[in-house]
Amino acid sequence: MTSVGIDRAPDAALVRRPARVRFLWLLVTAGVLAALMVASVALGSRDVTWSDVWAALGGADDTLEQAAVAKRMPRTLLAVVIGAALGLAGCVMQGVTRNPLADPGILGVNMGASLAVVTAVAFFGLTSPTGYIWVAMAGAAVSAVFVYAVGSLGRGGATPLKLALAGTATSVAFASLVSAVALPRNDIAGSFKLWQIGGVGGASYERIGQVLPFLAVGLAVCLLSARGLNSLALGDELAAGLGERVAVIRAMAALGAVVLCGASTAVAGPIGFVGLVVPHACRLLVGVDHRWLLPFSALTGAALLTAADVAGRVVTRPADVEVGIVTALIGAPFFIHIVRRQKVRDL
């Protein structure tokens, strides 16, 4: 793929960060994530004590409080792995397209995965959880190619604004198709209604075990693409002049992002805006070197989604607000801010 949109990061993000500063921020983020995981286990619609937490960690579920903690533990782990996957995928997409607006939700990738899963369940009787993941990844890949092809039409090629508009239009169209497929089917409409919003409430260790190998493969492919993404940031011509195989780098990095998006959507639904917000915030802290930016985006994405899940449980308790709604409330204003900062004519 070829792209012409360049992410004009703030001056603070262009300054080279010393390794010790980057490592310090990495430790701080890891500490924040650990604290959020503890909060996710301890906080919710039912108050629990530390003795209940320790008892549940030891396998006890004798009381309602201990049972609540035991239910929150896989939910917390799923929020961590899905958040890390989406944060990393968003960072890779922004690097591959050199587009500051790139995000699995905005570019229509998540909704393409959703449409593929709903169609496979409704018309082909798909029931295998692993099958969901394969189908979701295929749908994510087809949607990504379609959006890029549409965004490349006309003068100027695939500019960031055209990609964002094509992705948004595709997401809306696919969301309508998902509703059109699912609503007439009473046997699947109820389960897909909540899944379509995006959330981690139905987490289980079995589901995590099913999706983890796919996420591990996507994670490895993306991290191995870090050096190549640094070259792409210089421009295709300069990267090629340095001996890099631009098409191969772009294809491999995009493949890793598609695997992460498809697997995440299959398990948690189409959660948006994590991949948009996280990379921009991380560049302010560790700079633009993808060898640091990618792992930092994974940690920050995990922290953001865990925090959003905790907020959704605490703010309206005893009811739960799905994490997809919370991330949309955070991400939509940020998206508007990015567009205003970049200025439409520069996009």
UniProtKB/TrEMBL annotation:
Keyword Transport among UniProt keywords: yes
Transmembrane segments annotated in the record for this chain: 23-43, 76-93, 105-126, 132-151, 163-183, 208-226, 247-272, 292-311, 323-340
Keyword Nucleotide-binding tagged: no
Membrane topology: Multi-pass membrane protein
Any one of the GO CC terms: plasma membrane
Keyword terms, alphabetized: Cell membrane, Membrane, Transmembrane, Transmembrane helix, Transport
Alphabetical GO biological process terms: siderophore-iron import into cell
SUPFAM superfamilies from the UniProt entry: ABC transporter involved in vitamin B12 uptake, BtuC (SSF81345)
Ranges in coiled-coil conformation: none
Molecular function via GO: transmembrane transporter activity
Cellular location(s): Cell membrane
Family: Belongs to the binding-protein-dependent transport system permease family. FecCD subfamily.
Name of the protein: Iron complex transport system permease protein
Organism: Thermomonospora echinospora
Higher taxonomy: Bacteria, Bacillati, Actinomycetota, Actinomycetes, Streptosporangiales
